[in-house]
Every structure is written in C-alpha cells, then in structure tokens.
Specification:
AB_hydrolase_fold; four-stranded parallel sheet; Rossmann fold; Arylacetamide deacetylase-like 4; 11% strand; alpha/beta; AB_hydrolase_3; 243 residues; 41% helix
C-alpha cells in the first residue's frame, strides 16, 4: 500500500503544485521501516516516468528481525516505550500473527547458521561505536527449522531493509537517521548508517544521548515535554531544507 501510494503521488505531484524531484520519504519506528523498504522497492523496480525520492528520513527505525540480542536490545530490554519482547510481538503480528514462536525468535532460533554467518558482517556489535559495545556474550542458540519456516519472510529486505544486498543499498538516496540511547532499536539505525556509509551513500546521523523510543511524541506537551525531542525535530527540519 505504501509503495502504491508513493508511486501514485509521484505521478500526480504536479497537480498539487509539488515538485516530484523534491519528494522525500520518511517515518518513525515502524514508519521508518516502511520508508526504507519502499525506497528499496522503488530503486529496484523503477518506473521510467517517475523520479526517485530525493531523500530518506528515518526516525528510530525498525530495520531487521534477525537479531534481537544486539547490545541495545540487551541494555534496554524493559525500557519504555518499547520493550524487547514487545518488539518481537509487533514483528510477528506484522508477519502472520503467530505468537507461538515469540520466545524462539527472542533467542535467535529462527535464523539458520549459514544466514547468521552471512548477516554477521552487518550485525556484529563490533560495527558499533566502541562506547555502545557492551562487551556482553553473544547469544548462541541452535536453529529450529520449523520456526524459520514460520518467520522466514521477516528476513527478506521488504521487512528487514538492513539485510538488503549491497547493490540495492547503493541506490539509497541521501539519508537522515535519528537514534536514541535508551531504545532497543538504537543499534538498528547505527548499523544501517554504517552499511550505507561503507557503500558511499551520504548519511546524516543524529543521536540523542538522553533520548528514548517515541520521544518525538513528547514535544510541547506541557510538563510532559522533553527538550531533546524538540532539538531533534529542529535538526530534522533543518536537514529536510537541505534536500
């Protein structure tokens, strides 16, 4: 639906006095997942009559369901507003609603050994800044083929954009990524940033050291406001103006 809507709007943008060459995609949390996935779909299935998005804005995005034991998941597993278990719950709801495999996915039993090895070059905690590597032991589990069969679609780039092939990610437009320290999704955004940078994509990264998942909802909310969220919003607006 998001892809079809984007393609349609780009095709009729002129009717709304919008320059189709200046349309960017963006979203927060699950919306960031959709924005990244749509960007990849547009890049790999181009319409010769439509321009590509001029930019991508990802606000604490969900980008992979291969590893729920990254440092940010371990460090923030019960931090509001998004816990580790709740993230797996949402992913499974998005896939097929089968909650019976929730614990298996949490423990990493849904990924075959050969895929874990393949993904490790992108998901290894050593790819994170030193200050975000917690030094904890990597979770080692045995693969369960039945669980993999149930959730394997979640490892495809359409749901896990971070796991897309290099040739696809190279087509990513200039990207802004916002991450928060106290967020299970923090490392998703940072690892995506590294992949894009390694492939020569222009990336702007804004990290909120005192931020948490969903902080953008708490802007100008009287006593329930967080200055860091407002600063992040201002940075996003400033970035968009550069596109």
């Amino acid at each position: 639906d998001c892809e079809l809507t984007t393609r349609h709007f780009l095709s009729v943008a002129g009717e709304f006095n919008v320059d189709p060459l200046r349309v960017a995609l963006g979203g927060d949390s699950a919306g960031g997942n959709l924005a990244a996935a749509v960007s990849q779909r547009l890049a790999t299935s181009p319409d010769g009559h439509l321009p590509s998005p001029c930019g991508l804005v990802l606000i604490y995005p969900v980008l992979q369901m291969a590893d729920f034991n990254l440092p940010s998941y371990r460090q923030n597993h019960v931090v509001p507003l998004l816990s580790r278990e709740r993230m797996v719950f949402y992913f499974l709801q998005y896939l097929n609603g089968d909650m019976s495999v929730c614990q298996d996915v949490l423990e990493g039993r849904h990924v075959p050994a050969e895929l874990k090895l393949h993904y490790s070059k992108w998901l290894d905690p050593s790819n994170l800044p030193p200050e975000l590597q917690d030094g904890g032991k990597q979770v080692v589990t045995t693969h369960d083929g039945e669980v993999y069969h149930i959730v394997k679609d979640g490892l495809e780039p359409g749901i896990s954009p971070l796991l897309a092939k290099d040739e696809v990610l190279r087509l990513t437009p200039p990207t802004f990524i916002l991450t928060c320290q106290y967020d299970v999704l923090r490392d998703d955004g940072i690892l995506f940033r590294k992949r894009l940078q390694d492939l020569g994509v222009k990336v702007t990264w804004h990290h909120i050291p005192d931020g948490f998942h969903g902080i953008m909802f708490f802007i100008r909310k009287s006593w329930l406001s967080f200055p860091a969220g407002l600063r992040a919003m201002e940075d996003i607006v400033s970035y968009i103006k550069t596109l």
